[in-house]
Specification:
The longest helix has 13 residues, at 10-22. Helix 2 (34-43) runs parallel beside helix 3. The two termini are 18 Å apart. It is built from five helices and five strands; from the N terminus they run E-H-E-H-E-H-E-H-E-H. It has a single domain (3-120), classed as 3-Layer(aba) Sandwich (Rossmann fold). A five-stranded parallel beta sheet has the order 2-1-3-4-5, with helices on both faces. The protein is α/β, with parallel strands linked by helices. Strand 1 (3-6), helix 1 and strand 2 form a beta-alpha-beta unit. This is Response regulator. The modification 4-aspartylphosphate is found at residue 53. Its cofactor is Mg(2+). InterPro entries: Bact_response_regulator, CheY-like_superfamily, Sig_transdc_resp-reg_receiver.
């Protein structure tokens, strides 16, 4: 499964990538902001999941999600938002924009595993 991780923090991208690798996901692409993420989506239309931060320069995660959802190639793409924005209003905003699930930082590898399973409809 090809997964795109978009976060302006290289440390957070590395943490997510390492966690994904431990879960068996080796085909992971990266983007440092929404613009890089969108470029990666266009260069790799076979991406099967997007994990994106919310607060980023250039194009934030919410803008990226809206752009992805507006593109017919990615209408059904599973999207997980990873962010420090944990308020109810933010969660509702993200879900309305088309996010399938939501992780509040900081999080454990187990939380990422559970959210991935939930989005993909897989049970442990």
């Amino acid at each position: 499964m090809k997964i795109l991780v978009v976060d302006d923090s290289s440390t957070m991208r590395r943490i997510i990538k390492n966690t994904l690798a431990r879960l068996g996901y080796k085909d992971v692409l990266e983007g440092g902001d929404g613009v890089e993420g969108w470029d990666a989506m266009n260069d790799n239309p076979d991406v099967e999941m997007l994990i994106t931060d919310w607060n980023m320069p250039e194009m934030n995660g919410l803008e990226l999600v809206k752009k992805v959802r507006a593109d017919e190639r990615f209408v059904d793409l599973p999207i997980i938002m990873v962010t420090t924005e944990g308020g109810k209003a933010e969660v509702i905003t993200a879900l309305k924009a088309g996010v399938n699930n939501y992780i509040v930082k900081p999080f454990t590898p187990q939380v990422l595993k559970e959210k991935l399973a939930a989005v993909m409809g897989v049970s442990d």
